């Protein structure tokens, strides 16, 4: 039923309205993708992790060093 009502609405719009809607959607999508890229880049930046969680990062570094050091002794 929802597909039928959408089809009816699409027939009521002019080609210019449809193009304008597509352009608005495209612009929103470009903006969203840009924001997502920035967020992903910020989340995986190790410097950001160290700034936000310095003690956790130092602890992780000690743990990794300990594990690597013990694995080389054997």
Topology:
Elements: H1 2-12, H2 15-44, H3 46-52, H4 54-73
Helix pairs in contact: 3-4
Question: What's the shape?
Answer: rod-shaped
Structural class: mainly alpha
Unreliable spans: none
SSE pattern, N- to C-terminal: HHHH
Strand content: under 5%
Average pLDDT, rounded to a whole number, is 88
**What profile does the largest beta sheet have?**
none
Radius of gyration computed on alpha carbons:
26 Å
The N- to C-terminal Cα distance equals: 69 Å
Q: List the total number of helices.
A: 4
DSSP, total strands: 0
Question: Roughly what percent helix?
Answer: over 70%
Short description:
With 74 residues, the chain is mostly helical. It has helices spanning 2-12, 15-44, 46-52, 54-73.
Structural overview:
92% of the residues lie in helices and 0% in strands. It has helices at residues 2-12, 15-44, 46-52, 54-73. The radius of gyration is 26 Å and the shape is rod-shaped. By secondary structure, it is an all-alpha fold. The longest helix has 30 residues, at 15-44. The protein contains four helices and no strands.
Features:
mainly alpha; 74 residues; rod-shaped; 4 helices
